Amino acid sequence: MANQVMGGWTGTQEATEDTQKICEAVKDQVEKQTKQKYVVYKAVKYRAQLVAGQNLTIKVFAGEEDYIHLSVFQQLPCNGGKVELHNVEVGKTKDDPLGTF
After folding, report:
1. Is residue 99 a part of any domain in this protein?
2. Any idea where the Cystatin domain is (predicted)?
């Protein structure tokens, strides 16, 4: 996220190990909200917005042709670093762009 402007969204980037950790932190909430269990659950792309913490939209591969989009907020480490799921969009494809929702 080099050269990221405060309050502005990054372009879509390849997911990192940290992105996957954020996804894992909200997986139980995602499964509860979607009423599905995900055997395959791999972050592939993300966008971020630096605020008083970090907003993220994350594209997650959920097996076969299935993708889901997550809207997540991560607190700053000095505020505990807690990760909160805001929303989930199901029925996404590999080619669906990551928007904000």
Report:
1. no
2. 4-101
